[in-house]
Write a structure and sequence with these properties.
Chain lengths: ~180, ~180, ~180, ~180
DNA sequence: AATGAATGAGGATTCATTCAT
DNA sequence: GATGAATGAATCCTCATTCAT
């Protein structure tokens, strides 16, 4: 299927360095067929990214509906994210390769998803501050700090042989939760 | 000067999307002149990156020589890094645009510098664990967690209008130091 | 067809001075199309040369199989070569333009073909010397002398209006055969 | 001196593949200096070729003044040419690399010189035919045949280790003179 | 007069996109 | 609908020539 092939190749080489030919070869179809389904290389890329994050979005929306405690939300949410990227390393690669740059001006679902999860954390932290059990810190800063630590866990995992993810998630959550505690 | 122009354009568009012509125009010189000084686009890019991190390296080497306490090292080191990138946002952009993948296989000073700072943190954390005032956590995980939080501060600053860096650095250090404390 | 257009343009200007654009224009196709078929200008050139000499090679191989007398071999072989180049002046031009130096390091069929014909002559002359009806001369020198005289016939013809090739071939063969006779 | 350096480099690489920089480096002078003396690369090339053939021209003019017999003229003239090119292999290389192609449209002394020597031979042969001791052949064809055989001697010599030029010249002259004899 | 840094037109090659089959 | 050959704009790099010092 085209999207799978594209995911694989984009993850391998990054957007700019990927040839549409490579994707066609990987998908074992003609190059023209790709253009029959996606109007441009760029649109294909956006589709790849968007589809990829659907699964994650579903989980996250489940989570939000549950109205869990802040700590649970953090624990479960971060675990979801870490697991998702560890199970879908190609999406991780794409995020790492292409997110930071605005060359592609991705106005995709994925970006909004990322913002939304951050937003959820921000809300939780705000509540914690109001409720008095979290230090008075910038909630946005704190939320993204946590997310960036989760990214470190993913990256470490993808390079390592042993699966220490449980322990690692636990470690960063301890750091974070203890760190923001009043 | 060529390096300045190149820095600006690479930071704006990333390596692949940058034309040598753009750099020449930015530098207000002929395209050929660039090739007089740097044998290829790639070599120019490496030169840009390397030069950029010289200043940071000097500061960091000063720091190491001082044999400061772990907490001082962390406080001063993180402040240096954050300040450097906030003062040199183009280098920050380049690091963000080109580091994560190894498309360019940058074997530059910048990469080694990054590793070295991480290594310094790792050593400090190890000592802290031995000395008993730091929790038993993976030192590498902890070190990169801190560095990634510092990156969040930089990123937040570059998007914000107000300079909250002092407070933000203080916040993440509090989170981190309290979080890893036994 | 690409090879024909390339032959024409290479013959007109020589390898270095030929633009791939010129060939594309001559062939009335897009420049990219050429690269679809030949990975580089150089490969295209080699293909042109190789194809060109296929016909000549076939004739020559026929000749060798026939086990003709030395004089017949010389007469027929030289006639073949002269005719071939007069009928394919573009190949002649290419040979003249690009053979003498090894700038292009052509390790093509054409070069081997040339060597092989020379070798055949050398063998024939050696036999003649052994058999006693040819003077004791360096066979290599003699063989290449004959070949160079044939080249003169071709060159003369390509500049002239009248077709004196029969007479001219006869002349140089007379000179040569009488000249080497004991 | 510029002309010497240029001769060396042109002979090494051919006209198109020679950079003016290479010549400047060989001459150990600045590139600009070359353009102070010669208005263009092409003019420099022509100057190299022309100067090179001055010596040969002098010898040849001496020869013509002497009003020698045809056979002497041939023997001495061919020897002069062969010796000249063997002693000046760079000129030989240049002639081989650049003569046949008309890309450069060399309207230089060298070309005229070549024509003049050929013309001398032609005249001699014509006289021989009139006088009845030479076969009725196209004098131009015969003259250039001889010259091309001389070229073979030069080429053989430049590739060989041993100096067989005396014998070789003798061989081709025997072939030629006996061959054209009535 | 000599220099060599600067120039930019020119050339080989790539690759996203089109379109005839 | 699928294909992949054809396209040519875009890009990296070269090098003959100029010109300020």
């Amino acid at each position: 299927m085209i999207l799978n092939a594209a995911l694989k190749v984009f993850a391998r080489s990054g957007y700019e360095a990927t040839d549409v030919d490579d994707i066609a070869r990987e998908a074992q179809i003609g190059k023209g067929t790709i253009y029959r389904h996606y109007p441009s290389k760029r649109d294909l890329f956006v589709a790849v990214v968007d589809r990829g994050f659907d699964q994650l979005r579903c989980q996250m929306e489940d989570l939000r509906d549950k109205d869990a405690s802040f700590e649970d939300m953090v624990r479960i949410g971060i675990k979801q994210q870490v697991d998702f990227f560890i199970n879908n390393p190609d999406y991780w690669r794409i995020l790492m390769l292409e997110k930071p740059d605005c060359r592609l001006n991705l106005d995709s679902e994925a970006v909004r998803l990322h913002q939304r999860f951050g937003q959820g954390l921000v809300e939780g932290i705000k509540k914690g501050i109001s409720a008095g059990y979290v230090k008075k810190i910038d909630p946005v800063l704190a939320a993204f700090s946590l997310m960036s630590m989760a990214a470190v866990v993913v990256e470490k995992h993808l390079q390592a042989k042993k699966d220490t993810r449980k322990k690692d998630i636990s470690s960063i959550l301890d750091i974070f939760l203890r760190g923001i505690q009043k």
